[in-house]
Amino acid sequence: MADIQIRDEPLTWREIAAVANGARLALSPAARRRIVEARAIVDVLVDRGIRGYGINTGVGALCDVVINRENQQALSRNIILSHACGVGAPLERPEACAVMAAQIANFAHGYSGVRIETVDALLALLNAGLIPNIPSRGSVGYLTHAAAIGLVLIGHGSVNDGKDNLSGKDALARLGLEPLRLEAKEGLSLVNGTPCATGLATLALSRAEKLFDWADAAAALTYENLGSQANAFAEGPLALRHSPGLQKVGAALRDFLADSPMLSQSAGTRTQDPLSLRAVPHVHGAARDTFDHVAEVVDRELASLTDNPAVAGTVDAPEVHSQAHAVGAALGLAMDSLGVAVAEMAAISERRIDRLVNPLVSGLPAFLAGDSGVCSGFMIAQYTAAALAAENRRLAAPASLDGGITSALQEDILTHATPAAWKALAIVDNFECIIAIELLAAAQAYDLQPRTGRKAKRTGGLYERIRKTIPVYADDRPMNEDLARMRAILQLWP
What InterPro entries has UniProt attached to this entry (predicted)? Predict the structure, then answer.
């Protein structure tokens, strides 16, 4: 996998996702220069006693308490220690890597003022696979997640090297580094901004994008198995509905089902198909349009400084600006909308699964069981899909509207971008399970198909790919083993 280098142009969501999945991250000379110059401005602010939030003042509701120079290092250290109060199981390694990569990219804009030594330590940990254990819960925005990373830099906390856990101090020693003594502003910058939500968002996008393609494929297999109408996805009529996503899905379905003998046999047998089949371009397409908007928002977030305060100007004319750039309102709204879009894709897939297993509408053996009565086949797999679709509906409630008041009314509106990204990932995970069930059920339907027509070329190819790994199901093994194998195919192929 090619290295990713932070240059003059901001990183994209795809690049952050690539780092999360194993690519190395590096700073270009220009990015290093921006970091060094921003630090020089912070040093001048400190030397001149120019007031700056979190530089020489307390934080949160203590923002008007002036901190003298002798205590500014203690302030930075104490911010890390006191903010490290997250709970729950740690993030998975890719999620933690994505957060670290987004954090480094944020510092590389050159408006935060952390030292280059601090950024280099983060890079060294990331590229060595020494990933901080970041508790997954307990943040309304970003503070607790990011503090878990900062802990490691000062020799506390713990990391995972891919096999075992070790202390932050031992992790640094493995890299030949001593624990950092954080300078003015560094403690605040290390816990600030939206890299936590942004990093998680990049992985939600990356995983959803692949699953959207699989969902189109699964829909095509189901459509062919149920004897649907061959012209429902014709290009001319679909073009009457203006949606880039709809057109893309329509083209994919036409490609999968081109010259299908099975569909030729069923042509004209009904006026129109049920919506879970006929509206695939409309539902999948709307989700893709939402995806494109969310991807744009995440890329804008990566192009933006999300630290507070921002330092600017020059060493001769230093500036410090207390804005609300750390508030992730746009990101929270975007991730809520992605969660809803993915949940809707999962819901229509579950409806298609039901049609495959229901003998009242499928024309197939009940529950796709070879010996119904003795065998249950896919009866309970559909239950699983229904349960996950229902869970998605609960998860899709907007986090960005949760609100809340913290820090003694100083932070009296919260936009919950990190929780929104976290639950979007959970929805995507459920979606993967549901699509895996639909693909398994559709493959089983081909094996029990009473129609004599052959499959289309592409649907037939996908069926063969599934059957190379997963044989026909005959109530002869735990079905969750097949589901795990199918999920592995989704993650690794194509």
Answer: Aromatic_Lyase, Fumarase/histidase_N, L-Aspartase-like
